[in-house]
Amino acid sequence: MGLEEKVPDGVLLTSVDKMVNWARKSSLWPLGFGLACCAIEMMSAFGPRFDLARFGMEVMRPSPRQADLMIVSGRVSNKMAPVLIRLYEQMPSPKWVIAMGACASTGGVFNNYAILQGVDKILPVDVYVPGCPPRPEQLIDGIVKLQEKIKKESVKQ
Ligand code: SF4
Questions:
Q1: Which of 66, 105, 106, 148 is deepest in the core (most CB within 10 A)?
Q2: CA 150: distance to chain centroid?
Q3: What is the pLDDT of residues 22-63, one digit of tens each?
Q4: Atom of ligand 1 nearest to the CA of 109
Q5: Mutate to test the pocket of ligand 1, among 33, 35, 37 (most ligand atoms within 8 A of CB)
Q6: Which domains does the chain have, with CATH numbers?
Q7: Which residues contact 14 (CB under 8 A, 6 or more apart)?
Q8: Whose CA is closest to 94, among 18, 155, 19, 11?
Q9: Measuring from atom 3 of ligand 1, which residue has the nearest CA?
Q10: CA atoms in the 13 A half-sphere facing the CB of 44
């Protein structure tokens, strides 16, 4: 007799990792802030046309204490960098970071003393979204890639 036949109807077998990762990936709460032009595309992604609510993500949080995803949308000035670090540290773990656009990923065209040459100099970035600016579909693609990454994580880490 196989294991399936011994388990009563209506009982599903899974692992803690799979269940927790499914819950985490399906209810990401992004921190609501934008830094430059990329933020306009990010806002569009939450609107009715692109409808990020389909991914369980419509709840933009005004407080970092209620957010687990930071979307860095736009260039980060050196003056703003300590603020970004403070916001990241105030977010509860586990937490994830998306660098949206050329500026957040590398400094973009702003190769000068005032702009951080990539947010990964100060924060651990999970997904980079290319473009100047990336369209909302590209941000959504980056979020789907982050969800795939979360599915492979373990609660033991
Ligand atoms: S990547 Fe382009 S659109 Fe985005 S913040 Fe930089 S200049 Fe603006």
A1: 105
A2: 10
A3: 999 988 999 988 899 999 999 999 889 999 888 877 788 889
A4: 7
A5: 37
A6: 34-134 (3.40.50.12280)
A7: none
A8: 155
A9: 133
A10: 14
Percentage of the chain exceeding pLDDT 90: 72
- Report CA(90)–ligand 1 centroid distance (Å): 26
pLDDT tens-digit series, residues 116-142: 999 999 999 999 999 999 999 999 999
How many whole angstroms from 13 Cα to the centroid of ligand 1? Answer: 46
Nearest to 133 by CA among 120, 125, 124, 142: 142
> What predicted TM-score, i.e. pTM, was given to this entire model?
0.90
Q: For residues 25 and 151, is the Cβ–Cβ distance under 8 A?
A: yes
- Encode pLDDT of 76-119 as tens digits: 999 999 999 999 999 999 999 999 999 999 999 999 999 999 99
